[in-house]
Write a structure and sequence with these properties.
alpha/beta
């Protein structure tokens, strides 16, 4: 079934400085590449923890996106219960994020809560946290979120 009303998407990781702001930026860029901006009302990201609220994304995440021509503009924030009302899709990077959000999800929430990796056509479900590793992890994440972004657009029957 084709999506008619504009869709809102929230990407979530632990601290909102590595994976989820990258997913937000890559997804927004992919939407723009396909000329689908009018199909989305809001694209954002947040973290399950408040460690980095107000911070810009990790410099390695920014550099990886920039190397692929993807702009990043985000300040870290923590997920709120209101997000479950405002977003159609709340997409997590790993099972820990999913578990944390399942536990705070208000009853009757309209949000489709799932792993972003479920949309990866290569079946790589978990987008691992690259924070304590090297640049290779960020590059790997970029490829994953690019594939999952395309997969999400296909699942919404927009491409």
């Amino acid at each position: 079934m084709a999506t008619k009303a504009p869709v809102s998407v929230l990407f979530v990781c632990l601290g909102n400085i590595c994976r989820s702001p990258m997913a937000e930026a890559v997804f927004a860029h992919t939407v723009k590449e396909h000329g689908l901006e009018d199909k989305f009302s809001k694209i954002d990201s947040a973290g399950t923890a408040s460690y980095h609220v107000g911070s810009i994304p990790d410099t390695r995440s920014i550099a990886t996106c920039k190397a692929h021509g993807v702009p990043v503009k985000h300040k870290a924030r923590k997920v709120t219960k209101k997000d479950f009302e405002e977003f159609d899709y709340v997409l997590c990077m790993d099972e820990s994020n999913l578990s944390d959000l399942t536990s705070i999800r208000p009853k009757g929430s309209k949000a489709n809560l799932r792993l972003f990796g479920e949309y990866d056509p290569q079946g790589e479900l978990i987008i691992e946290d690259p924070y304590y590793g090297g640049n290779d992890g960020f590059e790997h994440n970029f490829k994953q979120v690019k594939r999952a972004s395309e997969g999400l657009l296909k699942s919404l029957e927009l491409i």
